[in-house]
């Protein structure tokens, strides 16, 4: 069983919105943190948004105010709502889960396969 599975990517014009969902095969509370990463061609994978065990959300500066991460515990789903999308948001987006901490920081060991988000100008 795939632990994490993304859905909802696609092609959108600049200024548009998309919703990404991550289906989690186990209870979300088995993870210390859930996050959304992205990787654009030729660039390193970067953390876009995360939500901790106790519900604290964090965002990359460039998406603050445009993206929102949330979770639905009964449905075992983590969602990333993306508004006012920009061409530089184009990337493969990955759902990730962290069960362990190192120096109080989550280590994301569990990954989905990714979903493509393309924003046209």
Describe the structure.
With 121 residues, the protein is an all-beta fold. The protein contains no helices and 11 strands. The protein has strands spanning 4-7, 10-13, 18-24, 33-39, 46-52, 57-59, 67-72, 77-82, 91-102, 105-111, 115-120. Strands 2, 4, 5, 6, 9, 10 and 11 form a 7-stranded mixed beta sheet that branches. A hairpin with a 4-residue loop joins strand 5 and strand 6. The radius of gyration is 14 Å and the shape is globular.
Mean pLDDT: 96
Helical proportion, percent range: under 10%
**Which structural class fits the helix and strand makeup?**
mainly beta
Major sheet characteristics: 7 strands, mixed
- The number of strands is 11
Bulk shape: globular
Quickly list its features.
121 residues; four-stranded antiparallel beta sheet; 0% helix; 57% strand; mainly beta
Brief summary of the model shown:
The protein is mostly beta strands. The protein has strands spanning 4-7, 10-13, 18-24, 33-39, 46-52, 57-59, 67-72, 77-82, 91-102, 105-111, 115-120. A hairpin with a 2-residue loop joins strand 9 and strand 10 (105-111).
Q: Topology of this structure?
A:
Layout: E1 4-7, E2 10-13, E3 18-24, E4 33-39, E5 46-52, E6 57-59, E7 67-72, E8 77-82, E9 91-102, E10 105-111, E11 115-120
Parallel strand pairs: 2-11
Antiparallel strand pairs: 1-3, 3-8, 4-5, 4-9, 5-6, 7-8, 9-10, 9-11
């Amino acid at each position: 069983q795939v632990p994490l599975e993304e859905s909802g990517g696609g092609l959108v014009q600049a200024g548009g919105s998309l919703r990404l969902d991550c289906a989690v095969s186990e209870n979300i509370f088995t993870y210390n943190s859930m996050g959304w990463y992205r990787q654009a061609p030729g660039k390193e994978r970067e953390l876009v948004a995360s939500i901790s065990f106790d519900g604290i959300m964090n965002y990359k500066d460039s998406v603050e105010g445009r993206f929102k991460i949330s979770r639905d515990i009964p449905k075992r789903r983590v969602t990333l709502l993306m508004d006012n999308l920009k061409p530089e948001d184009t990337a493969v987006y990955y759902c990730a889960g962290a069960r362990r901490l190192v120096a109080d920081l989550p280590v994301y060991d569990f990954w989905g396969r990714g979903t493509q988000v393309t924003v046209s100008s």
